[in-house]
Amino acid sequence: MNYLDFEKPLAEIEGKAEELRALARQNEGMNVEAEAAALDRKAGDLLRQLYKGLTPWQKCQVARHPDRPHCRDYIEALFTEWTPLAGDRNFADDHAVMGGLARFEDRPVVVIGHEKGHDTKSRIERNFGMARPEGYRKAIRLMDLADRFGLPVITLIDTPGAYPGKGAEERGQAEAIARSTQKCLQIGVPIVSVVIGEGGSGGAVAFATANRIAMLEHSIYSVISPEGCASILWKDAEKMREAAEALRLTAQDLEKLGVIDRIVPEPVGGAQRGREATVKAVGGAIKAMLKELSGMDRKALIAERRKKFLGMGQKGLAA
Amino acid sequence: MNWITNYVRPKINSLFSRREIPENLWTKCPECGQMLFHRELAENLNVCTACDHHMAISPRQRFTALFDGGVFTEVKVPEPLADPLHFRDQKRYPERMKAAQKATGEKEAMLVAEGEIGRTPIVAAAQDFSFMGGSMGMYVGNAVIAAAERAVKLKRPLILFSAAGGARMQEGILSLMQMPRTTVAVEMLREAGLPYIVVLTHPTTGGVTASYAMLGDVQIAEPNALICFAGPRVIEQTIREKLPEGFQRAEYLLDHGMLDRVTHRRKLREELIVIVRLLTGKSPAVLADLPPPKPVAEARAPVPAEGGDAPA
Ligand SMILES: [Zn+2]
After folding, report:
1. In A, which residues are within 8 Å of B187 by CB distance?
2. pTM assigned to the model
3. N or C: which terminus of chain A has fewer CB atoms within 10 Å of its end residue's CB?
4. CATH superfamily of A60-310
């Protein structure tokens, strides 16, 4: 288990319980179960306490937790006949973006998502979930495919943002993001998005310009990272707590602002402590969102999507 | 609904917002260091006469030089919610807004207008870098949408001059949502079969580049303009190497196939007239026959800094 800094007291209690049980395993006849169980209860209470009142910055940390289920985990658990499709037909295949055909609840669909990787090797291969222009162009190609064959598009958002690299800029990062957003607005099939971790800026919007948008309870979605915002507005990247607060990047605030449609609850202790339950809940949300859009024809889907975005910004937050 | 609120025949004073009136009559070129007589600089559309460096130009100044006879009509932009997040960094957002309004004499970071260029009716929008770095918040989004709607209503091409440091962080996620919102505006023009021409000016970065500023039917940039998604400093920090000379500048993008043209500001008006007329099947412009745009120098005679009814 990877502990976050604010989980340190929890790590101590859980560590103590673990130590006791290890001791008992070594010394026959030693009974520690009552004591260990008490520690478990204490840890459970503390966990509930911690996750009930997560600050925006703590949510950023949870959203980036390495043990959270990632795009690949959702695809493996929720879809059958997963058939990855590669490449942008121009330059390369971007491994930060997974995309392909699959079946969801008996229905053929196109799935597109950012994949961050789960260990050093796969993180490097996936470029930490930061897409390059090829990733957006692959997504554009797959959205076109979905449109031609009438398949709903499901996107899973989990990216720190677009990759700030030399080649990415030379190959038209900005244009690729703009065209991907534009493609989202053009296709006549349902698009549903779920922010499963980090919704980082333009890299997220490029896939999340959808008919329905859900966020996991402790995920974030923001115009800029709290660290980036802090270094610009506070001239001090260490002010990320203040920036996270000010940016209103939590699922709860975004729902109030009318930017997202639903929040998918996470188990106590976050998605990283209940991976299966989280994946299942996301599956339920995708099913519900697709159901809401069933029966709408091409024109209605496009018109609804436009209206949704044009109408954003009517609601502010209470002072 | 009547979008037109006022018919503007720019008076000398309204041409200037305060920031454009130098303390004295000289401006130093930030590129070559040449001292430039203010009037001479204005006559040359804020392009250094010594080194051709393109300095910032306000939307009003640009429109005055762009439209026939300097005549244009402002298009009203729907007012968004003020400070929807109650954003506060070291200053409150409304205070930053007030300071920017005072410094520029403008309400927000984009101006939309309709008028004629070379007797060709168009709608134009221009972003104001001196207003909070031209940042894109809900107002700028509304301005792009209003410009597109007006163009569709009048069946006219839209010419948009971009300039922005990126998104308006003080509007958080709502500034990010201007990327899809402004893209809807581009879609409206596309469906109506109307040309959408983007002129990228220094600097155009971040979410602005990654939405309406890169979706033009024709993409023109002013010389040496920085055009990017991620800025050079962020990239250098990420890849830990020095970037090549001219990286992310207009000419570099042209070389990499990301732009149609790089055009000097003085030649821009004529070029826009030609492109718009070609795209809309109009006869060649008879440029010599036209009333020339009011000599800029005449309109730009220096006025006292505190003078007249300069908007505050
Ligand atoms: Zn110069």
Report:
1. 182, 185-186, 306
2. 0.90
3. C
4. 2-enoyl-CoA Hydratase; Chain A, domain 1 (3.90.226.10)
CB contact under 8 Å between B229 and A174, yes or no, is yes
ipTM for this model: 0.95
Q: B44: how many CB neighbours lie within 10 A of its CB?
A: 17
Domain range summary for chain B, segments of one domain joined by +:
58-293
Q: Distance from A231 to chain B by nearest Cα, in Å?
A: 11
Alpha-helix residue ranges (DSSP H) falling in A151-239: 166-170, 173-186, 201-208, 226-229
For residues A40 and B20, the model is more confident at: A40
Q: Are B44 and A277 in contact (CB under 8 A)?
A: no
Kindly report, residue by residue over A159-185, the tens digit of the pLDDT.
999 999 999 999 999 999 999 999 999
> Could you read off the pLDDT of B137-167 as tens digits, one per residue?
999 999 999 999 999 999 999 999 999 998 9
- CA-CA-CA-CA torsion for B264, B11, B130, B39, nearest 10 degrees? 50
- CB contact under 8 Å between B180 and A181, yes or no, is yes
Interface of B with A in 58-97 (CB under 8 A): 80-81, 83-90
CB nearest B180 (choices: A175, A185, A319): A185
How high is the pLDDT of residue B241? 87
In terms of CATH architecture, what is B58-293?
A: Alpha-Beta Complex (3.90)
Pick the closest to residue A260 from A198, A180, A192, A190 (CA basis): A192
